[in-house]
Amino acid sequence: MTAHAYGDDWTSGVEAIVFETCDTCRSHWYFARNRCPACGAATVTRVPSRGEGTVCAVTSVSRAPAPELRAFVPYRVALIDLDEGVRVMGHAGDGVMIGNRVRGAYRRLGTVLVPFFTASGSLRDGPENSR
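RESULT FIELD:
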């Protein structure tokens, strides 16, 4: 992962997925907020993810949601349970299936940077089963 201000992530063109953690109750979540959704504390820290996790769901998109994406269909989208405990959505490589261990990278879809996940191990081969 490249060094950056932790406020920046893929939504602003930086190759990073950034989640937040509460300094008071240690809850963590994705999507920036001013306060902890669990306890209401205002002491929140932004943390970069390693970008590794397990596929929770995957689907193929064959109808572009916007005209600028028509050139890219069909493409795959997946929900990823990151090892840090947050769930994110990203694009997925061919062959990525529910339960796969995946590793994130980044690709451009037209002018937009998106997270792109590829299989990195066997089904349900989580960190607790790593070699």
